[in-house]
Specification:
259 residues, alpha/beta, Rossmann fold, 7 strands
């Protein structure tokens, strides 16, 4: 596979797999939110006003709310927003993007991006986040990424890199691409980076559904994705003959505090 769909197709692709995304994507471990509170301060979550930008189906939204935050979800996609609304009908939902947040200045204690920062233009999204943050507030960006220190995960990543045209072309990588260069003269403390490791045990089919919910599979469509997923099933069953995958993640977190 060598042809690449247009870049915009990747950002818009999740609406076609929104239900699959809601079912198959992993949560985030409690250690993530403990670390956010460590880096952003003890009042960063409980009782705080939080904007969850690129909220998707509400995975992080729910967990932030469960930690006591007053969360507003921000999501541009109709399909993803419908899933969030069905799962979290009590959470305010605003249609918008991180490059132009539809909020007043100094209205939030925390601006969070879970698996979504790479869909923004940091030259615009960094100033926007700092604009809506109150003094002492924080911008927190995080991703679950396949753990590169785990052999079977690294091997799967190498296979997908070879076969999929758009694989990680949007900067899903360590240390929040673009954030440091985009801070410019804007008053903010230096970004702090942490990497956490965690696992979940799931059936092979759920792992494959997770893969299929990623943008570079969604843009290919079911017919073109099927042979890649079939090959991955065969590899996984060799590694996990009982059909239960030990999914391994490196959870990468960057926090920037506003003075």
């Amino acid at each position: 596979m060598t042809d690449q769909p247009p870049s915009a197709d990747y950002a818009l692709s999740f609406d076609t797999v929104a239900a699959q995304y809601a079912t198959a994507r992993p949560d985030y471990p409690p250690a993530l939110f403990d670390t956010i509170e460590e880096l952003a301060g003890p009042g960063a979550l409980r009782g705080a006003d939080v904007l969850d930008v690129g909220a998707g189906t509400g995975i992080a939204t729910r967990l932030l709310r469960d930690r006591g935050a007053r969360v507003i979800a921000v999501e541009p996609g109709t399909g993803m927003a419908a899933q969030l609304r069905g799962a979290l009908p009590d959470v305010p939902l605003v249609r918008g993007i991180g490059d132009a947040l539809p909020f007043a200045d100094a209205c939030a204690d925390l601006v969070a991006y879970a698996q979504s920062w790479h869909w923004t233009d940091p030259a615009r999204s960094v100033p926007e986040a700092l604009r809506v943050l109150r003094p002492g507030g924080s911008l927190a960006l995080w991703w679950n990424v396949p753990d590169p220190d785990v052999a079977w995960t690294a091997a799967q990543e190498a296979r997908l890199q070879e076969r999929l045209p758009g694989y990680h072309r949007h900067g899903v990588s360590t240390r929040a691409p673009g954030i440091i260069t985009s801070l410019g003269p804007t008053p903010a403390r230096a970004p702090v980076f942490r990497r956490l490791h965690w696992t979940r045990r799931i059936p092979v089919d759920l792992h494959l559904a997770h893969l299929g919910s990623r943008s570079y599979f969604a843009v290919l469509g079911p017919e073109r994705s099927a042979p890649v997923l079939a090959d991955e099933r065969a590899h996984l069953l060799r590694d996990f003959p009982d059909g239960i995958v030990e999914d391994a993640y490196a959870l990468e977190l960057t926090v920037v505090r506003r003075p």
